[in-house]
Batch of 2 targets.
Target 1
Amino acid sequence: MRVGLFIPCYVDQFYPNAGIATYQLLRKLGVDVTYPTGQTCCGQPMANSGFEHLTKDCNNLFIDNFAEFDYIVSPSGSCTLHIKDHLHSEEAEEKATGIRHKIYELVEFLVDILKVKDLHARFPHKVGLHQSCHGQRGLFLTQMTELVAPYFSKPQQLLSQVEGLELIALSREDECCGFGGTFCVVEEAVSVKMGKDRVKDHLTHGAEYITGADMSCLMHMEGILKRENSGVKVLHIAEILNAE
Amino acid sequence: MDGATQTHPELSEIFNKDEERVDWHDETLWWIRQKRDKSAHSIPEWEQLRETASQIKNNVLSDLSAYLVSFEEKALANGIIVHWAADAAEHNRIVHGILKENGIQQMVKSKSMLTEECHLNEYLEQQGLDVIDSDLGERIVQLAKEPPSHIVLPCIHKKKEEIGDLFHIHLGVPAGTSDPQILTETARQHLRETFLTRRAALTGVNFAIAETGEFVVCTNEGNADMGAHLADVHIASMGIEKIIPERRHLGVFLRLLTRSATGQPITTYSSHFKKPRPGQQMHIVIVDNGRTIQMGREDFRNSLKCIRCGACMNTCPVYRRSGGHSYHNAISGPIGAILAPNLDMKKYADLPFASTLCGSCSNVCPVKIDIHQQLYKWRQVIVKEGYADSTKKIGMQLMTFTLSSPAVYRTAGKAGRWFLKHVPFAVNNKFNPWYKQRDMPEAPAESFGEWYKKNVKKS
Amino acid sequence: MSRDKILAALRQNQPEKVALPTTLSFERDVNLNLAEKFKAMAEGIGSKVYMVAGFGEIGPVIGMDFPSEKRIVSTVPELVSAAIPAFVLDADPHTYEDVDVAIFKPRIAVAENSALWITEDRMGVRALPFITQHIVMLVDIALLVPDMHAAYEKIGSADYGFSTFIAGPSKTADIEQSLVLGAHGPRSMTIFMYS
């Protein structure tokens, strides 16, 4: 099984540790993982702003980089979902379709494909789990509170394997943090308010760390935490699952 | 709100100046969302009900012309007078015509979002007629000279003290009254007088049954019935999409409607109007106003399945923190944001962007409209039709250029430098909307790509 | 003509025909005690519920619950007495504006939401169940059905000019979501359940 590692652009640039943890974790679990160095971005920033028609070259680049792998794994629910829903190519639609079916967000790859039961990780802290919308409602990482359906949570399933980790309860289990791509600047006022409210929920319940499967949401909440001079930190879930 | 030039971001920023009020608004609507959850979770077959409702509505859309003809035929046979209006202006003229013909100057109206969409009140007032809204929330916003901010909870943005002030000015309650019990009683007395003296009543329509020619109106207050049963002339305004095929389908929709809206098991009154009472005139005005165009937009037509429960507003984290008026349209919230661009793409170009695409709206929708996916698709249409602002366009083109080429992306340099140059939220100054209230992430010593090259690729 | 324009536009724009769902059957809890469920739902939305053995018990309770109400009318002949006059038809519905208590016998009672189905022929006049200050409903427990689907099965293709489901007293929560009973219709609903 050959796995191609897709590291979203902003993770590459700002949160290399999330990428490194993802890589190391996969290696630790015996996965043959490669990072194709010609990759850039999934095209979501343009598409979500209404410029999907500009993503043609970006899509083809993605296909060039990843078509050859058995699986593509990415530490971002949002970018994974974008590829799953929107990757198309006039030149190589067959390859695009293949990629749409074999791309996995890290947590779902660990739970559904590798079926990880025992992680050997240790993180003795109180942790709040942020359910990023695209991972949750788009990739079904966790059951959604709106639906009348049995509960499950893949990230929780993994975090429960981490020694010493105490997962805190939240008042609003799956409310959006307000990042939303360019929404965070176009709708600055509402975005900030949503972020503040989300952070507050974690803080009131005693979180020392906020984690999740999407660094973009965490980046948003980090921006607010720092501005509020809070000591609470954000960590990508890969960093916790890889902690020893 | 016609002629409004302010956009959703601008209006939301104003709304967010009073953070305490935003918290209050958010908590109030979240509480309703929680009541909806509790109610839905008490029905094990909830998801099956949603699916059935969705299928019925899909069938309705696919055969709407035939259903409308059947509805009209049955309604006529039942003694109801049927009118058709191509747009808001024709709807308003028809209503005015009916009133004029009967020599009526004053009308009482129960809740009808369609008449809000058509701006009927303003039109009739210009013709010198007097309209009183009888739903308590609608009456309150009418006294405040504001449009409703929510389709089910018209004055959800108002605090009881503000309502007390309005009632002090208009209905004579002592200054400083804010007890909802007293305020409601005051409105009851005031509107009872109205019901008893108006010869014409207008109601909305929740469901119109093609099989029988009857229509159903749901209220908690009893105001639609008080108006209709005491008036000589009953006018019911309905959008063409209000049709459902058979009477028994009401079982599905009435179970979903209020549970989705407020968590109630059913409204106090679900009234089935089939024939006028002896001596009464009953009119139905069937309105298009852009709906047939929306029907032709494959990606957006199923927005016409909407039964106006308001669940998408209550769950929307953006709506809760920006208020209904920030959508500057009769129908606010996520559903408003996918309906409005059909009416005027330029005026409402901002609305599909007033969302994080979190998807909660689609999950609560009782007829399973893919609201958040339609928001995404409207963004593409709006940009393609040229309604995106030009600075955004240049930024996006630059971004595309860089992200389409690994060489450009890499030579942009060390970690963080490319982003700091090209990502709109990556500058540490007061003009940067990210930095205004949030800190920037720190640029690390090396990017993941650089780390990989050093630590993995070489070995 | 707008009618033809609208219909033509629809024929042009509506999608290919999709079938209706063939059944409207949903799983039901067969062990549900309908009377208990109905009572709990009715009380939950502010109705007062009495379980009585027979009609004889009802009159005195009404007398006690509404001691000072002046105008009481009964559309139910079995419940007419010296204290409770029979409904008398007046073509002008405005003449009922001073009714304090009106008594009705609905046709169907729905356990899942305590809604009572009452057709026009049992209302006296259409306005009466709404204009009265207080409403009293006499519910034979044989009328109970579990849910709205069952209710509509029972209604079938019945003809009526007007009919309604009524669940509880009129209410509003338009002011800051504070629930107030007695909006524009009755301020209270009293239900007598008998078998």
Target 2
Amino acid sequence: MSALVLDGLTKRYGPVTAVHGASLRIPHGQFVCLLGPSGCGKTTLLRMIAGLEDPSGGRLVIDGRDITTAPAHTREFGMVFQSLALFPHLTAGENIAYPLRIRGVPKAEQRKRADELLELVRLPGVADRPVSKLSGGQRQRVAIARALALSPKLFLLDEPLSALDAKLREAMQIELKQLQQRLGITTIVVTHDQREAMTMADLVVVMSQGRIHQAAPPMEVYRQPADAFVADFIGMTNLLEGEVTAPGTAAVPGGTLHLPELPPTGRVLLSVRPEDVIVHPAGMDGPNRLTGTLSFMRDLGASVEFRIDVAGKEIVALSRPQDRPPVAPGGALAVEFPPAACVVLPPMAERPQ
Amino acid sequence: MNETTGKQGLHAALTGGIGRRAVLAGAGTLATVAAIGFPNIVRAQSKTLKVGVYGGYFKESFEKHIFPEFSKATGITVEAIAEPTGEAWLVQLEQAARARQAPADVSMMSQVAMLKGASAELWAPFDLSKIPNAAKVVPHLVNKYPDGKVSGIGAVSWYITLVTNTKSYPQAPDSWAALWDPANKDKLGLLALVSNSFLLEVTAATFFGGTKHLDSEQGQLDCFKKLAELKSNVKLWYRDEAQFEASLKSGEIPMGQYYHDVTGLAAADGQPVRSTFPKEGGILDSGSWAVTRASKAGDLAHVFVDYMCQPSIQALLSRKVGTAPTIDRKMTDLTDQEFAAVSSDIAPIIPRYDLYTSKSDWLNQKWTEMIVG
Amino acid sequence: MIRRAPRGLAEHAPILFPALMLVVFFVIPFSLMIAVSVFRRVPGGFYEPDLVFANYERFLTAFFGGVMSFSLGLAALVAALSVGIAFPFTYRLVKLPRRAQIRWLVFLLSILSLSEVIIGFAWSTLLSRTAGITNLFVALGLMAEPQSLSPSFGALLAGLVYQAFPYTVLVLYPALARLDPYLEEAARTLGSSPLRAFFTVVVPALRNTIVATTIMVFVFALGSYLLPQLLGRPQHWTLSVLITDQAIYQSNMPFAAAMAVFLVLVSLALVGLALLAGRREETA
């Protein structure tokens, strides 16, 4: 099966390295999100794929063909820019038909295709409107339609929804995903919004400081983060530093935990999602429990959030309202870390942030 | 070099030909205009004479070499007024005279301006009995009203001659006819205006027996027709003297018409240029002293003009300012060399200033069509 | 939002100053010029107030028609060339690092400070036989012997374009600097080569700026009267040269004014036509 293969793609700007040897294999029809904080190199990586930046090293191969140095206009990828980059001198329809016009497609056919695409993005009847007369959401759809006009092999989007308000953004995320599924087109979206990535992606690629930390399906990224950065960046987590003292036993601040997957020796880092931490009233003994003091508590309606001080380390726990122990801030509590919920991460050499 | 460029300004100012420098100097006009508006401030000293001379090089030279000597000799203080260029000064004098004002008592005027002023009877007639030295001035430099009264007396004169680059022309040409020589294709630099190049007069003198040929319209048309023949020889019709002077020195434009004294100074500087008086004569242009009828200092003006006409002063002007004497050279103590630097014994071609008053628009139109067309 | 029209002096105050400036620096001088253009020329003198159209009649001849067409044609050519060169130049300029941009802009501003006369002299020297560029060509073996390239139409054109170029760049600069750089990239991802993207997206997106700049350079070139004298032959003298001749050398203010009024009206008409054509194109 053919695919898009990134093999050690690197981009340097003088002494600064924006992307360090990014390697990735993207099968056909996948929806990929490049996710990371701003400045992590995700946009540079996307631009290298689009042909808008020349890689300083590495190779880019699609369907077995090396396109590392192919100019952008020969790649036939559709791209949606963060600014949308709609041509201000053209109408919505002309914008969409632009790639067809460039290829000398007859006018009537251009028009027909533009109408089809507007239909596809659920924006019929605006073909003759100048883009300045369209709303933000409408422009978004025109930009998407334009990028899809040539039925490209690859559909690239650079923070496509960042200009929209929260509600519209949610709706567009779902719509974009549905559109991608309908067309079965390999899609790569750059975003810094993990919720957006989780909503849309088949494959989330978490990046930081120019490196790919993890490339995996959303749930795997969440449940099995590859390292402390991913665990911390995707959702909220409790990171516990510990030391293996005996096989299957780790000493952490405030006590010891018994976990089956521990390495035989050395320092370890454990990640436990707040919703996996179980809160018990003080004095109720059991395995993998640490005792602490409730420092803060808030009721979020669907859940209750506890912040518990365990030997100077703050542990966050979420529990259902009905499971809430009768305790007030300042009171003692026990927190349980179920072994199945503890992810053992490689110890942090330096904590990326 | 400074002196040379300054002189171009002088010539341009008096011929009514205006270089760029003069246009810039036109800002001075505004100040003068503004000054006229005010009532005449009562003069503290009765023995003060306001003398209008062209601003820049000319005024500086007069203030340095002439006016102090004059004041010492006569006890009359001179207030030098910088005249604007072109005919603006004439217009100002006319308007001021209507209000019985005199921005200057005596002014140096171009010959065309003299004639125009005379037609409006702007000039107070001179009493020659009070100007004994006027008798020495050559007759064609004395301006007269139709009834014979004297309206102006020659102040300064200078020659425009045939100039060549000595490297391009080892042999000096001896006739204005050289301008028409087919061998000189694309080699000439000539003045761009009918009223400052005086090429109609040159044509008449060279091919039609003299400037009298320009009396009739047919004669004028003859000259235009003849002149049109040299068009293909002309590389540059110049308004800016500095441009032609630089091109002449470099040999880019190796032949043309230019000021005799300026060319002489350049040659003395070691530049490969020469000025030649053709056998038909150099073009003698001049400026005259004239007194506005609104002036109340007529007596002092007479003393001034008489002083200026003295042979010693004319010689001084030749040496220091580079003008040709307005009187017979024999009366001056100029050496042959000094005289040759500013003038020649060959009879001059005297411009037909009358034409530039009576037919100026027509001549200008014909001229422009001739060279542009 | 409906706005009440301003009432009273106080509410009109904000526009009083610009209005005053417009009146003082444009309306009054232009009215004076129109007035003078119908005054009677006094041969040998100046002019007297009158209402005659002789000055316009004199102008309406084949000769002046020829000069006028040449002037307009020259100005149009200068405008087209200046914008044609300055637009791609500025397009590259705005993509340079900030420091390099500033260096270029300072350099261009320093050209602006050169007077027309210095530009004229520099070009006539550069194109001269004795000291000009052809000597370099001879030294390089490209030419047999040095040639004089000035005065000529080409020299005049070069001088005028050189003079107009910095203005053109400075007028184009803000619009090009503001242009979304992703427009061109978008065109490239849609299948346009960089050159094609430039012509199908960048140029049309800035059409209004280009039209306005072209008109500005056109008017600028139309007013040039020194360079045609320094770098052109008489047949290349523009109407502005003849106006100067009449105003300064012939002291014929009425005729000069009539020509100037005519020139202003024809320029305004052409500019209006250009704008009209542009608008029609837009709505089409």
